[in-house]
Amino acid sequence: MAKENDHIIGSVQLQTFPDFIFLSSLAVLESHRHQGAAKKLLNQALKSVVQDIYLYTIIPDFFEKFGFIKTAPIANLPSKNTYECEYCQPNKCVTMVKKR
Question: Of 8, 10, 47, 67, which residue is most buried, by most CB within 10 angstroms?
């Protein structure tokens, strides 16, 4: 979690699967965006990961800066329905991976 003055301003969540890690959430309060909090959260989360990391996103340009590339979903990824992607922006949502 990212905090400012004892208030949570952002968080990241990784889920562990047998063959990969899934980045299921990266969020920063709107009032604190574009100030580096998401970058810090993601860098911290990536430090300890030794498996490939997958995610769904509508902002692939952000994740490309961290070495993620667009890819086809693999069979064992969680369903996009689990993350309500169908209500977000399904035409913009892509699957990405960072190979380890």
Answer: 10
At the topology level, CATH places domain 2-98 in Aminopeptidase (3.40.630)
Domain limits, the chain: 2-98
Nearest of 50, 68, 46, 48 to residue 59 by alpha carbon: 68
The closest alpha carbon to 77, from 8, 37, 22, 39, belongs to 22
Q: Please provide residue 2's backbone torsions phi and psi, each rounded to the nearest 5 degrees.
A: -105, 135
Q: Model confidence at 44, in pLDDT bands (50, 70, 90)?
A: very high
List the beta bridge partners of residue 3.
8
